[in-house]
Every structure is written in structure tokens, then in C-alpha cells.
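Bench notes, afternoon.
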Amino acid sequence: MNKPRDIIFHPVHFLSLGFGSGLSPFAPGTAGTVVAVLLYIPLSMLSTWTYVTVLVIGSIAGIVLCEKTSKKLGGHDHPAIVWDEFLGYWLTMLFAPTGWLWIVIGFILFRLFDIWKPWPISVIDLNVKGGLGIMLDDLVAGVYALVVLQLIHYYIF
């Protein structure tokens, strides 16, 4: 069984491990989401169609990337794999209002749903294996966070 630090320099694993953010000894998913926030800032300047294209390509690529890294690490959804957090957060921020407040609210909501795993996220997490399972539970968490973010924007702000 390989360790994440042993495979970080391979391009596939470098992406799956969130450019190294997944190697954080404390809360690697949160560390990965912080890097996703930093990458979101330039992504947010893209047109909606280009942003959606990045989400679709990133999600499809993520299934392959996460599958390969998972197999290399010898287990399903190793904590160091954080590409799924990138895409889950970016999905959360689709149609988000501009500004740091919304970036932070999106971060908090995504992390909440990703950690809490309400239905059907918990079912997906337990039953869908491989790269698809790794990606899908975070994408669904991203959808939940997106909906709540939009409701907060519409009804509160």
C-alpha cells in the first residue's frame, strides 16, 4: 500500500490530492476546500457556460482521477483525496452572488453537508464505490449547499 506522500509527484495523484492540500495532517477535506476557494476566485470570473463546462469536465475527470488514486492508495475514498471537495465546492458556488461573504457562506455550507452527509449523501457514501462514489457524494453535498446558499440569498439578503 502506498502513502499519499509517495505518489504526490504523479500528475494524476497530484490533482486527486488537491495539489498537495490533501496531505494536511489535520482536516484534509477542509484544507482541500480552502484550496478550492482560492481557485474559485479566478473561476468566478468565467462566463456561466464556461464555469459549467469546467464543472462537467472536472467532475468526469475526477471520477477517473479519484479511482486511480484510490486504487494506488489501497482503499476507498482515502482522506487525502480531495479533488471531490474542489468540485463539490465549485458546484456550491454556481450562481453564487459575488463577494467574500458568499464565498465564506458557501464554504461553511459545503463543509457542513460534506461532513454531516444527510440522505441521500450517506447512502451514496456507503454504497457507491470507486471514483464515481468518491465524486458523487461531494457533488450531492454541493447541490444541497448550492440550494441553501440560494435560499439564504433570496430570503435573507
